Amino acid sequence: MSRRPAVLLTGVGKRFDIVSAFGVHAFTIAADPSLLAPARYAADLAVVPPRIDDPGYVPFLEQIVAEHDVKAVVPLTDLDIHVLAAAGDRLPAFVAPVETCEAMYDKYRTHMQLTARGLPSPPTVLPGTEPESYPVMVKPRRGSGARSIHPCADREEMEFFIRYVKEPVMVQRLMGGPEISIDVLGDLDGRCLNAIPRSMLESRGGESIKGQVLDDPQLVDLARRVAESFGFRGPGTIQVFRDPEIGLGITDVNPRFGGAFPAPMYAALPGRSYPELIVRMARGERVEPHVGEYRSGMHFTRYYEQLELDADRRPTGRPMIS
Questions:
Q1: Do residues 283 and 71 lie in contact, with contact meaning Cβ atoms separated by under 8 Å?
Q2: What is the full per-residue pLDDT of the chain (322 aa) written as tens digits?
Q3: Is there a domain that residue 34 lies in?
Q4: What share of the chain is helix, strand, coil (3-state, %, to 5)?
């Protein structure tokens, strides 16, 4: 076993970038039920857990934690965040409190929690209540990846899409202006360590693939207030629109790493990347907040890569072009 502290990353999927970044500072264990999850191949060790809804899921993770002396468990998907939070002291998980995780998984509950805390959220209602104005968007309360989001110019379109989407939905003001994401990191006491805003110049499936790190103290302060209000312990991403009429409005809060993970990596000052800070905290170090201290201005653009595997799912190392 490596002397580096062990970190268990769950639901790694295609997050090769995040697993690789943790690998600079820790012995990485990737947990994913798919044997073809690309990020498995960025880890020092890959394991196949039961399904998240299986009663054996948390006991399986507990066994991995004990066997490898894991110091931190970090989810890379929405699906098991509330499960890890509910496990409490059974796992050294870097997740928000369970009540926050459950609320954030329901976008209408997120809206209600934001407004109750005096944080800006666009006007939002449930089906059966007339919205304040049009246009609006109909979107799933538990959607992800920009799935089944439908702009509606008037009541007729709204009512059609409420019927069309075959799951619980909500109706939210269609925000104008630029869309921005803010990547935050909280410590185990719920203090916000940093907040790094980035523009979403182009996105696919709700995930930013082109953007720029922004110097914007207003956004930094807003993200800090959100992170500390909800007690984020670990990474989080806050999506905001700056509407020309109503100003800032938070449309989504996720207590996990964002899709455009490279942006805060590029922007972090030396020794302050989020994976390195998590590893330092996992070792027992108390990291002091440095909110607003990062490099701004750089752009990022993301692309696909691939691995060739042999019949036994082992990387061949063979380049695609030779």
A1: yes
A2: 447 899 999 999 999 999 999 999 999 999 999 999 999 999 999 999 999 999 999 999 999 999 999 999 999 998 999 999 999 999 999 999 999 999 998 999 999 999 999 999 999 999 999 999 999 999 999 866 567 899 999 999 999 999 999 999 999 999 999 999 999 999 999 999 999 999 988 888 777 889 999 999 999 999 999 999 999 999 999 999 999 999 999 999 999 999 888 899 999 999 999 999 999 999 999 999 999 999 999 999 988 889 999 999 999 989 887 6
A3: yes
A4: 30, 25, 45
> Which segments of 64-116 are extended strands (E)?
70-75
Q: How many other CB atoms sit within 10 Å of the CB of residue 120?
A: 16
CATH code of residue 263: 3.30.470.20
Q: Domain check: are 56 and 130 in the same one?
A: no
For residues 191 and 291, membership in a common domain is answered with: yes
On whether the CB atoms of residues 151 and 174 are closer than 8 A, the answer is yes
Record the tokens describing residue 223, joined without a space: 């993200």
**108 and 119 in contact (C-beta within 8 Å)?**
no
Residue 47 domain-assigned (yes or no): yes
Angstrom distance (rounded) from CA 55 to CA 209: 36
Residue pair 220/91 in contact (Cβ under 8 Å)? The answer is: no
pTM over 0.85: yes
Residue 86: helix, strand or coil by DSSP? helix
Note whether residue 78 is domain-resident: yes
Angle (nearest 5°) at CA 79 between 92 and 197: 80
First to last CA, the chain: 36
Identify whether the C-beta of residue 83 lies closer than 8 Å to the C-beta of residue 11. Answer: no
Domain boundary among 93, 115, 142: 93
- Domain CATH number, residue 51: 3.40.50.20
Give the total number of structural domains in the chain. 3
Domain enclosing residue 80, as ranges? 6-93
Q: Which domain-ending residue is among 93, 112, 140?
A: 93
- CB-side neighbour CA atoms (13 Å) of 74: 36
